[in-house]
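Priority: medium. Attachment 1 of 2:
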């Protein structure tokens, strides 16, 4: 039982402000949440940005830099930046944060999928901003595009900046995509996989499916580090299973707005504290940021551009 890496996905691009009053949207709020995650014992903060006035998901480079500088000034947490952006973000904007900030780690989505959020609309009684309902309903006819060509291009940018790709696996076929990209030399081993479960359009968040993903990846790829995140109510059960299977865990308000049934999480740090309590009961210890850097073979905070 080694150290386990606890990641918090701070805000994402799935949930909207009407869903929770605690969802961080401004650069200051997102940076503050990342710092609190560090204080709670988390090693990594996964960063998306939003319009500070409306909460609309964006790829604003100034906002990314503002967050990165604020967080680095206060703590040494690893910042993992998205190349997914919001669901309809033009692909040419999605990797710009890597060449701009040269972070230690950045997400790389390992294939295209239907990414449905439209089914959430009926659960929301009042809308805080006009864009939210249209944004969610529009996902009934949206494909989240990550072609072999764009994956190859993103990977080239990632490696040019000595950044580690965190390979997001939404379904089993994406494991084969990663294996193919390794074979062709576009992905360098050792690899870090993030199994993303429970998205409508991806693999359901069940214990059986997680075992299937891990075993499939072992056969196709060999050795790897992996983490797991699960959308909604399965967040803590599936993250706990990940630890038992030898992996790491991602929590955070991007994936789940609740701390317990009917109890909203007031911060990402609350979720981090909960999964760390669970981990310690099972005999696991949370990795510090520097321990996580060694586990993932990252370049270090001294080589980022912020």
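Attachment 2 of 2:
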């Amino acid at each position: 039982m080694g150290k386990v890496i606890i990641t918090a996905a701070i805000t994402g691009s799935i949930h909207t402000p009407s869903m929770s009053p605690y969802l961080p949207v401004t650069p200051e709020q997102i940076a503050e949440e990342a710092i609190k995650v560090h204080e709670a014992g988390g090693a990594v903060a996964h960063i998306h940005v939003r319009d500070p006035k409306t909460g609309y998901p964006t790829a604003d480079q100034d906002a990314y830099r503002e967050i990165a500088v604020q967080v680095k000034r206060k703590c040494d947490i690893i910042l993992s930046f998205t190349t997914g952006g919001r669901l309809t973000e033009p692909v040419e904007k999605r990797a710009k944060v890597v060449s701009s900030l040269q972070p230690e780690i950045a997400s790389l989505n390992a294939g295209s999928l239907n990414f449905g959020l439209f089914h959430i609309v009926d659960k929301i009684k009042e809308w805080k901003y006009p864009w939210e309902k249209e944004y969610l309903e529009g996902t009934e006819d949206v494909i989240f595009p990550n072609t072999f060509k764009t994956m190859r291009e993103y990977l080239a940018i990632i490696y040019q900046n000595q950044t580690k790709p965190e390979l997001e696996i939404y379904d089993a076929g994406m494991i084969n995509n990663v294996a193919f990209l390794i074979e062709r030399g576009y992905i360098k081993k050792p690899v870090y996989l993030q199994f993303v479960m429970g998205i409508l359009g991806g693999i359901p968040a069940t214990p059986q499916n997680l075992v299937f993903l891990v075993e499939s990846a072992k056969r196709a790829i060999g050795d790897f580090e992996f983490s797991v995140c699960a959308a909604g109510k399965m967040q803590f059960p599936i993250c706990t299973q990940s630890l038992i299977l030898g992996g790491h865990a991602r929590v955070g308000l991007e994936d789940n707005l609740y701390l317990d049934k009917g109890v909203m999480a007031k911060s990402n740090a609350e979720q981090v504290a909960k999964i760390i309590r669970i981990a310690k009961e099972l005999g696991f210890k949370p990795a510090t940021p520097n321990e996580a850097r060694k586990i993932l073979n990252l370049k270090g905070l001294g080589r980022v551009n912020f």
